[in-house]
């Protein structure tokens, strides 16, 4: 595996980064001195070692997330939920940042459809007025906000799915599995959105109001000075209205689509499929789920964009200004493209990370477990 410092831009972990020392302190064991960004001990590669291989300098130290070859993670153990949380951070943070240009155009089409009349003209106008920087406006709050959201969305989903399945019993969990998926995903997203909301508010301001702020570091203080802390959560109700149905559809549709693909499309059971084949199923099922997610959550997405762009506006004001037809359709084609790509990539990254640490991919029949260790028996 290539060193992380060759993959991630140095600006994300340079000594000038304000968050660097905080990460170092959070990852350091309590009895050890806090890491400093200026210290040669701090690097992305050593950080990766702490997550995946442990700290070789500390006797008896064990990794937070072991590599796949070690396969030390028991299903539903604390390490299992740690792995799912980190996989969620990677899947949501990276993918939402990746589609920032589409998000910028989509938000502007929702706010000002007279100026941004189509997808092509939206990209053209945005690039002409702001250049490349204009197309990636708001990538900072996007990356941070959706990384936080991904941690809650995926990590808590695995927790609540198991919690509700245990609550109703094995027989009912199998009989009403879709209800378990829906309840687990709704519960997870409720908490995930509390972490996302402040960053979503800043993101929309930066993306739809040129000159408002350069990004997260100046955008959030400005928004707080104008509207107070409450301004960061002005859009929490429509955000729940957008994200909870979206996530319920995302997880329930994905889980059922995976099962259907293995049953009707893939010519062999999941246990006989290679990891590459399983990850292909994950991506395809994720993309299909993403299309349904976009349609279900689009009206609320329009509300979130408008509320964060229009100072003092209410939900009623937005509906009166846009009309019901525009509320359901404005920017929908681009959002289907964006969300389908996002969701497929998220499930691909999430399950790839789970495979890397020795866990099975999500959905369909659970793999058999070793009765002595409680570990999943790996497929081909």
TrEMBL record:
InterPro entries: MCP_dom_sf, MCP_transmembrane, SLC25A3/Pic2/Mir1-like. Keywords: Membrane, Mitochondrion, Mitochondrion inner membrane, Repeat, Transit peptide, Transmembrane, Transmembrane helix, Transport. GO terms for molecular function: phosphate transmembrane transporter activity. GO terms for cellular component: mitochondrial inner membrane. It is found in: Mitochondrion inner membrane. Belongs to the mitochondrial carrier (TC 2.A.29) family. This is Uncharacterized protein. It comes from Apatococcus fuscideae.
């Amino acid at each position: 595996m290539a060193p992380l410092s060759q993959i991630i831009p140095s600006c994300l972990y340079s000594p000038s980064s304000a968050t660097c020392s905080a990460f170092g302190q959070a990852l350091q064991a309590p009895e050890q001195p806090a890491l400093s960004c200026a210290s040669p001990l701090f690097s992305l590669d050593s950080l990766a070692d702490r997550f995946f291989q442990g700290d070789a300098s500390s006797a008896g130290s064990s990794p937070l997330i072991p590599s796949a070859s070690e396969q030390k993670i028991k299903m539903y153990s604390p390490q299992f939920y740690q792995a799912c949380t980190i996989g969620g951070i990677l899947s949501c943070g990276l993918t939402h940042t990746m589609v920032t240009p589409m998000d910028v155009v989509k938000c502007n089409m929702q706010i000002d459809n007279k100026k941004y009349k189509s997808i092509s003209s939206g990209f053209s106008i945005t690039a002409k007025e702001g250049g490349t920087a204009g197309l990636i406006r708001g990538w900072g709050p996007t990356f941070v906000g959706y990384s936080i959201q991904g941690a809650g969305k995926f990590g808590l989903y695995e927790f609540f799915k198991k919690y509700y399945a245990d609550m109703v019993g094995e027989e009912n969990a199998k009989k009403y599995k879709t209800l378990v998926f829906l309840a687990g995903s709704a519960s997870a997203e409720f908490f995930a959105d509390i972490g996302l909301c402040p960053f979503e508010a800043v993101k929309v301001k930066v993306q739809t109001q040129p000159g408002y702020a350069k990004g997260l570091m100046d955008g959030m203080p400005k928004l707080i000075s104008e509207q107070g802390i409450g301004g960061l959560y002005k859009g929490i109700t429509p955000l729940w209205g957008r994200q909870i149905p979206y996530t319920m559809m995302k997880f329930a549709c994905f889980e059922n689509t995976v099962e259907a693909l293995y049953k009707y499309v893939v010519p062999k059971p999941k246990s006989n499929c290679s990891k590459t084949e399983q990850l292909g199923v994950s991506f395809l099922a994720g993309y299909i789920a993403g299309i349904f997610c976009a349609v279900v959550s689009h009206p609320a997405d329009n509300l979130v964009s408008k509320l964060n762009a229009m100072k003092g506006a209410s939900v009623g004001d937005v509906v009166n200004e846009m009309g019901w037809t525009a509320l359901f359709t404005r920017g929908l084609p681009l959002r289907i493209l964006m969300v389908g790509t996002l969701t497929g990539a998220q499930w691909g990254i999430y399950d790839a990370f789970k495979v890397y640490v020795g866990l099975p991919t999500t959905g369909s029949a659970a793999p058999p477990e070793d009765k002595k260790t409680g570990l999943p028996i790996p497929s081909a």
